[in-house]
Amino acid sequence: MPDSGPAPSIRIRVRMTARPIDEPHRVSSQLELLFDLTFVVAVAAATEQFAHTIAEGHAADGLLLYLQVFFAIWWAWMNFTWFASSYDTDDVPYRLLTMVQMAGVLVLAAGVPSAADHGDYRTVVVGYVIMRLALVAQWLRASVEDPERRRTARRYALGISVLQVGWILRVYLGERDLLNESAQLAGFLILVALELSVPRWAERTSTTNWHPHHIAERYGLFTIILLGETILAATNAVRRALEATQVSAELITVAASGLVMVFALWWLYFLHPAGPGLANRREGSYRWGYGHYFIFAALGALGAGLEVAVEQTGHELHISPTGVSYAVAIPVAVFIGMLWIVHTFISSTPTLHLGAAIPAIVTLLLLPLGTPLVGSPVTIALLTATCVALAGIVSWLNAAEGLRQ
Question: What separation in angstroms does the CA of 76 have from each of 114, 135, 149, 166, 274?
Fold first, then answer.
């Protein structure tokens, strides 16, 4: 038989059927990597606004806004990721609908400043709805082309569509002062709970064929994006500090500590791959996936905290040095605690041993109390030393455990 030549690089249309869960060498596609880049912009916008509110002494108000905006970013990313793990055809319709979702991410990012400065969430919601409606179109296509999981796909499409009406209605009522701030927050929490319930409700009929190692890799890549955002935020703050003042010991201490801290957190996250655990305990995947909201949000908040810490070395801010130290310590403590928790859902031997994690978390939360005596740069250096010590201890414990087995 004559060679028909290489397969075409662009597939016009491929039937959307469930991909096998044991597909070998399943890795992120180039389109998924491009898709992630739009979230770099969105996360940067949210982190920048949070850093600004921390520096102005309004950390509590800024945290509430940050967590709400970050939920929209995270949930849209997560829904795309799990859908792609099951139904990525990489044909023309799939690519075009993914591009629409990317446009929605950028619209959402553009609306973050208005939401932070004026409480105007209209642009954020418009971007979110664009992303979600494009996903609805993907699910409707799957319902047509994958008869075995038609009811599941239709449930996803219905649940997502109905909730978009809820998000639009919440903004509409808030803009007309028909909902006060407490009612808007309550509405947000109710809609979040319903959003999180849609996958469990949809998959009661039949489960989708997500690939455990692909999912683990996608979450790892998003973790790297957020660690990169942390480095970028601190670097931008260093650049501004150098433009305004000369190099100081405090600036060097915070900048170096921030880099080492990020490296230690990267070390901890990737100490043990999650793919095998997800494959063996698929029932724990929901809690593992949902728990990453706090891991991802903590990394973004850490970027904001380090940015403020750098700025304080050369400027007077409206936040105390102790507050700056806690702006770094709390996200790191949340990251470590949630990393231990999510691993318990997919492994009987979590990467982070409880006996090491709890003392580290307690130390992280107590160290900022000494900031009035030693200053925030030294405190941040001590926080970094705690992270490094934890990474070293956990690595040694895991190695010893591996030798025993």
Answer: 20, 9, 22, 16, 22
